[in-house]
Amino acid sequence: MATTAWSITQSGRYEPFELQVARGQISWHIPVTVFGFNPDLDTTEETVWPGGGIISHPSAAIQWKVSSSSANDTSAGTGARTVFINGLDANYNEVTETVTLNGQTEVLTANSLLRINSAYVATAGSNNGAVGTIYFGTGVVTAGVPATVWQIILFDYNATVTGHYTVPAGYTAYMDTGQISAGQATGSTQVVSRLLASGTNNIRRTAAVVTLNNGAVNYDFFVPISFPEKTDIEAAAVGSAANNSVSSYFNLILIKNDAA
Questions:
Q1: What is the pLDDT of residue 124?
Q2: Structurally, what CATH architecture does the domain formed by 30-54+164-259 represent?
């Protein structure tokens, strides 16, 4: 006999708030998880992202150049063919688009953007993903790498792993949990990691700081930290010695201001 499976929400019983948000059952609430990875953290503070150094942004909304280090990442190639972009326009409103790649030759985004919060490989050839690293930036492009890199899809990841997120206009972001982890092939380096927030004045303020040695630190905010619209949220770290691998994530819920 066939049976009908009903969710406990539909049946009128209790279901965790977080699951209801993830299922889109609570209006004006959007879940966001931001992952970051830096494969080579040294003794100067860097953003937890594959690009090294502190991540930078354009000073005004412009069309970004999208290119790959591999000629096989192209519209009919064996690698990545298209990438999906979630970005912010000049007014910090969310915009999305899909870009068709042209190998090491740059392709301009259709939209003028201040930020790319996330991007991923949407379609691919027989490789089932990108063959090279995909770059988003500006300036002269050499072998698929623009002079200034603002965002990266690291080879074999097929999605951005950048520990940075900018809150869209009209929303407040609430952070309740996250993690930072670090390790070194040999030895045990002290790593100091900071959670940073900066508004349109570009002042990078410390929201939290932790210290760890070859391990992970979870952080849970009993009262979630709130970040207003247009705030850049960034995970950054510095090692007491070179050659550390660092990863991070943080969980946000965006709540529309008009509904707060």
A1: 98
A2: Sandwich (2.60)
